[in-house]
TrEMBL record:
Biased composition (Basic residues): 318-358
Gene3D superfamilies the UniProt entry points to: Aspartate Aminotransferase, domain 1, Type I PLP-dependent aspartate aminotransferase-like (Major domain)
PANTHER family tied to this protein: CYSTATHIONINE GAMMA-LYASE-RELATED, TRANS-SULFURATION ENZYME FAMILY MEMBER
Signal peptide stretch: none
Keyword Acetylation among record annotations: no
The protein's name in its UniProt record: Cystathionine gamma-lyase
Source organism of this protein record: Streptomyces nigrescens
Length: 448
């Protein structure tokens, strides 16, 4: 029996041929030579491409190892989401969306309602979408949800939706096919953004739709052709190349995120910790997909013990400063290397960022001086490192520099430190977590 690791390495590869590469390179072609009528597997670049074929076959093998799945690749995850919704819904239909789903779903809702489609919403947790399912044409599930990481019973929801005559689509972006397989849980569509965990390198925008129903796949494929939401050959090839390390990345990210979540669970300055793998995580344990989450949220106000709920990051005595002040200071001092190069989960880079809440932009702002506490949601996402490589630092801040060597360059940090000093531009400072070093120390060092 082939395991997930072997399957991910071999998925979608053509039969071996002498003196040919295991994974053929990308095919850049707008049209193909046709001997006669315009018929055949490859006719025009907007319809099909050999590089897509390999990638779609690979994803289909991961989403449905024990059955045939038809996969359609898209230019982005939102293109895949839109293809399912707009290819299956008509004016007068009803659709059930999660109220705590991805931040662009409210924009999709507005567009659907402008076409005369009724949109109902309910939270992911506790299978609450069942309460608004009557008469719906399509049920959209997102589990684990983003950003709250709530989970639900996909099989129960799918069985009940089919009994009431509705199709079921599952956004499988966070879980990946190695965390859960919606098609095996009776869902009609498995939809995901390949931009994040699937490809993992942060260099590709991609999405896909998988289904075991050929007619549903044809409708989605026709939508892709009509709107032109096709992936580029290079992006498709990069995504296929990245699948070989999917099992490794999922295993490392899951173990690292769980270790950090467990270490923070008992810290007094952290409230509202959410991780599906913890015993007290969101949702019943039986419904949490194994290895489904490499991300967890720190929801609520963070503050050191004894300093009051002022919305401050642990280890920093001041509330969030105004942005212009931070920019001014960033130009005159060295700051630690940021925990993540991007604010969204991309794969190999660890991440620490803020969220403003479901359905809104995640460009959260720090609490303002004189305006009282503001509840923030912090997301810490694990990269590819093994757990011992990034231990939980004291007071949940990056490793402190060696005393007396602050601001003196990389020598002030241990060689293994993930936060070696590096001068960053003013536009990056907002996403750094700086060690708390009094300004008097800096002056005394300069004087010496």
């Amino acid at each position: 029996m082939t395991g997930d690791g072997t399957r991910a390495v071999r998925a979608g590869l053509p039969e071996p041929e002498a003196f040919e590469p295991a994974l053929p390179g990308p095919v850049f072609a707008a049209h193909y030579h046709l001997p006669g009528d315009a018929a055949g597997p490859y006719t025009y670049g907007r319809d099909t491409n050999p590089t897509w074929t390999h990638l779609e076959r690979a994803i289909g093998e991961l989403e449905s190892p024990d059955g045939t799945a038809h996969t359609v690749a898209f230019a982005s995850g939102m293109a895949a989401i839109s293809a399912v919704l707009f290819s299956q819904l008509r004016s007068g239909d009803a659709v059930v969306l999660p109220s705590d789903g991805y931040q662009l779903l409210p924009a999709v809702r507005t567009r659907l309602e402008s076409y005369g489609i009724e949109v109902r919403t309910a939270p992911t947790a506790h299978d609450a979408q069942l309460d608004v399912l009557d008469g719906a044409r399509l049920l959209w599930i997102e589990t684990p949800s983003n950003p709250g990481l709530d989970v639900c019973d996909v099989r129960r929801l799918a069985d009940e939706a089919h009994r009431r005559g509705a199709l079921v689509a599952v956004d499988n972006t966070l879980a990946t096919p190695l965390g859960q397989r919606p098609l095996d849980l009776e869902a009609d569509f498995s939809v995901a953004s390949g931009t994040k965990a699937l490809t993992g390198h942060g260099d590709v925008l991609l999405g896909y739709v998988s289904t075991r129903d050929a007619a549903l796949a044809d409708a989605v494929r026709q939508w892709r052709k009509t709107v032109g939401a096709i992936p580029g050959p290079m992006e498709s090839w990069l995504a296929h190349r990245s699948l070989a390390t999917l099992a490794l990345r999922v295993r490392q990210q899951s173990a690292g995120a769980l270790a950090l979540a467990a270490a923070l669970a008992d810290r007094p300055e952290v409230t509202g910790l959410r991780h599906p793998g913890l015993p007290a995580g969101p949702g019943p344990p039986a419904r949490r997909p194994p290895d489904a989450s490499r991300t967890f949220r720190l929801r609520g106000v963070l503050h050191p013990p004894g300093q009051g709920p002022r919305g401050t990051l642990p280890g920093r005595p001041h509330p969030g400063r105004r942005r212009h002040e931070l920019r001014r200071r960033a130009l005159h001092r060295r700051t630690p290397r940021p925990l993540g190069r991007r604010r969204r989960p991309r794969g190999l880079h660890p991440l620490l960022g803020r969220h403003r809440g479901p359905g809104r932009s995640d460009r959260g702002r720090p609490p303002r001086l004189g305006h009282g506490p503001r509840e923030l949601t912090w997301r810490w996402r694990w990269g590819w490192q093994r757990e011992p490589e990034r231990p939980v630092p004291e007071r949940a801040v990056p490793e402190q520099p060696v005393p007396g060597r602050h601001m003196k360059g990389p020598a002030g940090y241990p060689p293994s430190s993930p936060c070696r000093p590096r001068l960053r531009g003013a536009r990056r400072h907002v996403f750094h977590v700086k060690p708390n070093v009094p300004r008097e120390t800096n002056r005394s060092n300069k004087a010496s």
